[in-house]
Specification:
The complex is a heterotrimer of chains A (307), B (334) and C (243). Chain A is an all-alpha fold. Chain A has twelve helices and two strands, in the order H-H-H-H-E-E-H-H-H-H-H-H-H-H. Chain A has helices at 2-32, 39-57, 61-88, 93-116, 144-166, 168-178, 180-183, 190-215, 224-238, 243-261, 269-283, 291-302; strands at residues 134-137, 140-143. In chain A, a hairpin with a 2-residue loop joins strand 1 and strand 2 (140-143). The relative contact order of chain A is 0.20. The radius of gyration of chain B is 20 Å and the shape is globular. In chain B, 47% of the residues are buried. In chain B, strands 1-2 form a two-stranded antiparallel ribbon. Chain B has one domain (2-333): ABC transporter involved in vitamin B12 uptake, BtuC (Orthogonal Bundle), CATH 1.10.3470. Chain C has 243 residues and is an alpha/beta fold. Chain C has a single domain (2-238), classed as Rossmann fold. Chain C is built from nine helices and ten strands. Chain C has helices spanning 41-49, 71-78, 95-102, 110-123, 125-129, 140-151, 170-185, 197-203, 226-238, and strands at 2-10, 18-25, 30-34, 53-61, 64-65, 80-83, 158-162, 189-193, 206-211, 214-220. In chain C, the strands form two sheets. Chain C has a six-stranded mixed beta sheet with strand order 6-7-8-3-9-10, sandwiched between helices. In chain C, strands 2-1-4-5 form a four-stranded antiparallel beta sheet, covered by helices on one side. The longest helix of chain C is centred in the last third of the chain and has 16 residues, at 170-185. Classes of the chains: A mainly alpha (307), B mainly alpha (334), C alpha/beta (243). The A-C interface holds A 168, 171-172, 174-175, 178-179, 181-190, 292, 295-296, 304-307 and C 51, 71-76, 81-84, 86-93, 97, 100-102, 104-105, 107, 130, 133-134, 136-139, 142, 150-151, 154.
């Protein structure tokens, strides 16, 4: 079936961006256990900044990243220092952070709607003239913008994996995710590393938000909530805090979504995210793709590990 | 029941003062619709004052007593309004009965959400919200002649503001009584035990699951009732309005602000913030969402324990204030 | 040496867990701190390290005021390592990665870091065997040894150890205590908090008994007064540990 091939390829491309979105949320959640319910709204904010840079200054999305990345990194630091020290003093930090960021989500969505209106926006064909509008693959046609978006995602995801698994600092961040308290005894400036992790998570979200303008036909001020739920579904699926799990989860999720859309009406697709999320939380909250399970299984096969 | 109520009211100076205030408030509310010409305090204002206070108290039954945060609370309001509308429109049920149908819809939906209580705090909150959102989206997909699809149901013929006003009064009085009862009953004590130390509660033989579900279902029934009554009052039932996330956020905010787990807390919180909300809404109609979100953030960051909690933490207490005032009054009078 | 004078400290304003502690911990010796639950033993270590608020009193180390250092500076600038009571390995990281993190404060010096890690492998051959195993798969005793080995990477002058043998089978904990014993030979000062009074007396040079936030007795273990000796014997015969 031709449709299936198209759905799978599209799913892979969208999945790569989803993987990026999920990874960005995962770092923030993993490091601080902060349920950043405003994550999707930050994505939309980034999409808007790319949109306006295009509308007003003819700056294409990829070039806009030069500005988006540092700005969102700083936004992350600001958000961290304004909220986290206070939240750490609360009796129930996780819950209180949920409330604060839930509030922020409402503020951002309402703010953007008030300032920029509620109509849907889009950046159609920003690379018209320099690149063909579509590419052919296995007999199917795909929009170039989408291909570009997924390629950029791959680059960033690879960079993230390299950073987390091949650098000292990245190792410290993974350690922070696994056992925050323990880092305080090793001379690691826990607060500062957490803040930078927040910044990195936000910067990645900024990139993902910009890529949204390439991957999806349109976005709107109120669309943030949807992406937040999708992102949470993915990281719960991949195992909260597990960087690789979030990436695998993103691709799998998009594949499921695209294939399901072959059989369900279009408006039902947001429903899929929620159903997946609720189902996974209820049935297997530790996630489907925790990499340690995979590694553990591989180790067992080879007869080592354990002890 | 009446004996119990009177007994509780006369128990201490503080309770006596509060009971007098409560009765006075009730009288004012009873004749509310007949006041004319007072700025701001219109029938609609009083309606929504009771509405939000009641919802804050109802969500408090879950949040304050069990510690779970039901972010998807708006779903129970929503199905309540749809239950009301559909039973009236399709089955020609008399309006007061339709309200009860709304409550029943809230109850049934609450039952569906029960398995979520297996989850820990954050997971519960996320799943709860996701489930509620899913219901909202699902309604868009249902047949138009049943639920009105995305545009909603036409309820103009049901519009009867005076009747819905007294309905909301009855339900709100109910919620106040239920909360007062909960605070003193075995059920309430068990709930608070579960909230404060789940493991100790379990080992004392308290069936956590069952007790929690009583509180939960009580709360969802009220949400359904309020959903139905609000539909009656506004004649609006559609996915966007009936499943508005503010219907979770505002009651939570009011309960947190006032101090969860108490009777006075949500009442004070709702009362004060509702005033603020109304004044601001008059000035900036579009700002309602923005401001609610902002206030939520500020309240959590600045007053993590709510007004009542902060007072207690700093060793001041409202009851102390009330007792002090009562003593002063005694001295003045004698 | 570390000197405490009239130390009052706690985690919540207004509540002092340490109720006026005065003590001197000599350098190059193992000081065992024992006492019933809630006496404030762990809090003592935490307070010196900077995890609790000092309300009154002083903490000095060779003349330096320790209250001016934050926990992350303790390891890097003062040279005090801390093996806490709670599990502090990073379960999904390998043993080797865990050790590398112990060398965080000297990570700029690659040669020194590698040499230090190899030295730890030399002292703890069991860890060497499991270099690339995920730390979470190690047994309790091995994890403890990983934590102790990790604390030595930056060549600290002082090591705090809180409940080294909690939850460990006796034969496993012997390995752990041996490694603590060896620290003394390397001129490392050790402050040891322990429920296991027998081990505390056997391996410790100085004994500090804490009760209700104060140090009530302080004697070298090989020269205890009759009073203290009786108390200790009573505790040991009761359970082998203090209730």
């Amino acid at each position: 079936m031709v449709d299936i091939v198209s759905a799978v390829v599209t799913g892979l491309m969208i999945g790569l961006v989803y993987a990026l979105i999920a990874s960005s949320l995962n770092i923030i959640f993993g490091v601080m256990r902060i349920v950043n319910f405003a994550h999707g709204n930050f994505l939309i904010l980034a999409a808007y900044s790319s949109f306006w840079l295009w509308e007003l200054f003819d700056i294409d999305p990829l070039t806009s990243l030069v500005a988006v990345v540092p700005i969102f990194f700083v936004l992350g630091l600001v958000a961290y220092y304004l909220t986290v020290p206070r939240l750490l003093n609360a009796d129930d930090t996780e819950m209180m952070s949920f409330l604060v960021y839930f509030g922020l989500s409402i503020v951002l969505a309402a703010g953007m709607r008030i300032v920029w209106g509620s109509q849907t926006r889009a950046i159609p064909t920003p690379y018209e003239g320099t690149l063909p509008l579509s590419v052919q693959f296995l007999g199917q046609t795909y929009a170039t913008s989408r291909v570009i978006g997924s390629v950029v995602s791959v680059v960033l995801l690879s960079a993230l994996v390299w950073f987390l698994y091949r650098t000292y600092y990245g190792m410290a961040i993974r350690a922070l995710i696994q056992n925050r308290e323990a880092t305080k005894f090793l001379g690691i400036e826990t607060h500062r590393v957490s803040a930078y992790s927040f910044g990195i998570g936000m910067a990645l979200a900024g990139v993902a938000g910009t890529l949204l303008t390439l991957i999806f036909p349109a976005f709107a001020a109120t669309g943030g909530q949807n992406y937040t739920i999708i992102a949470f579904s993915i990281i719960v699926m991949g195992g909260l805090g597990d960087p690789i799990g979030a990436m695998i989860g993103g691709v799998v999720f998009a594949l499921v979504e695209q294939v399901a859309m072959l059989f369900l009406p279009l408006s039902a697709s947001p429903l899929i995210a929620f159903v997946v999320l609720v189902a996974i939380i209820m049935l297997r909250p530790e996630g489907l793709f925790r990499v340690q399970d995979v590694r553990g299984a591989l180790a067992d096969l080879r007869g080592r590990g354990g002890g | 029941m009446a004996n119990w109520l009177v007994g509780a009211a006369l128990e201490s100076t503080r309770n006596r003062v509060l009971s007098v205030l409560a009765v006075l408030t009730l009288l004012v509310l009873l004749i509310g619709p007949f006041f004319r010409g007072i700025p701001i305090i219109s029938q609609s204002f009083l309606f929504y004052l009771m509405f939000w206070t009641g919802l804050a108290l109802a969500i408090n039954v879950v949040f304050g007593f069990t510690g779970y945060i039901p972010f998807g609370y708006f779903a129970f309001y929503g199905v309540g309004s749809y239950g009301f509308a559909m039973s009236y429109l399709h089955l020609n049920v008399p309006l007061p009965v339709a309200v009860l149908v709304g409550g029943a819809f809230g109850l049934v939906t609450g039952v569906v959400f029960l398995p979520m209580f297996r989850l820990e705090g954050i997971y519960f909150a996320i799943a709860n919200f996701a489930g509620a959102y899913a219901i909202r989206i699902a309604i868009n997909l249902t047949p138009d002649d049943l639920t009105g699809g995305a545009t909603g149901l036409e309820l103009a013929s049901a519009y009867a503001p005076l009747q819905s006003y007294y309905a909301v009064l009855v339900v709100t009085v109910g919620v106040v009584l239920v909360t007062a009862w909960l605070l003193r009953s075995r059920l309430g004590v068990m709930l608070m035990a579960i909230r404060d130390d789940p493991i100790a509660a379990e080992t004392s033989g308290i069936n956590r699951g069952r007790i929690r579900s009583y509180a939960w279902l009580l709360s969802t029934v009220f949400a359904g009732l309020y959903g139905a009554i609000d539909a009656w009052n506004t004649a609006i039932v559609d996915p966007a309005s009936s499943f508005d996330v503010l219907l979770s956020v505002k009651p939570l905010l009011y309960a947190i602000f006032g101090g969860p787990g108490t009777l006075l807390g949500p009442v004070l919180g709702a009362g004060s913030l509702y005033f603020v909300d109304t004044l601001i809404w008059r000035a900036l109609p579009l700002g309602s969402y923005l401001l609610t979100g902002l206030v939520l953030m500020l309240v959590v960051l600045v007053l993590p324990r709510g007004i009542i909690g902060e007072l207690e933490y700093r060793k001041l207490s409202l009851s102390g204030v009330a007792d002090g005032l009562a003593e002063f009054w005694n001295r003045v009078v004698s | 040496m570390i000197e405490l004078d009239g130390l009052r400290a706690g985690y919540v304003k207004g509540i002092d867990v340490l109720d006026g502690v005065t003590a001197t911990f000599e350098s190059d010796r193992i000081s065992s701190i024992v006492g019933p639950n809630g006496a404030g033993k762990s809090t003592l270590l935490k307070t010196i390290y900077g995890f609790a608020d000092v309300n009154e009193g002083t903490i000095t180390y060779d003349g330096y005021d320790l209250t001016e250092y934050s926990p992350s500076e303790m390891l890097r600038d003062v040279g005090i390592a801390y093996v806490p009571q709670e599990r502090s390995v990073f379960p999904e990281l390998s043993v080797h990665e865990n050790l590398k993190l112990g060398a965080w404060t000297i990570r700029g010096d690659e040669t020194r870091t590698e040499a230090a890690i190899e030295s730890v492998y030399g002292q703890f051959p069991a860890l060497d065997e499991k270099r690339h195993a995920r730390a979470g798969t190690l047994s309790g005793g091995q994890q403890r040894m990983l934590e102790i080995g990790r604390s030595l990477l930056t060549d600290p002058d002082i090591v705090f150890v809180d409940e080294p043998s909690a939850g460990l089978a006796p034969d496993l904990s012997e390995n752990v205590y041996d490694s603590i014993d060896r620290l003394r030979e390397q001129s490392v000062t050790v402050l040891l908090v322990d429920q296991n009074i027998r081990a505390a007396v056997e391996y410790g040079d100085d004994l500090f008994i804490m009760e209700q936030g104060q140090v009530v007795a302080n004697e070298p273990t090989d020269d205890m007064t009759d009073e203290v000796e009786d108390l200790v014997s009573e505790w040991i015969s009761a359970k082998g540990e203090i209730a």
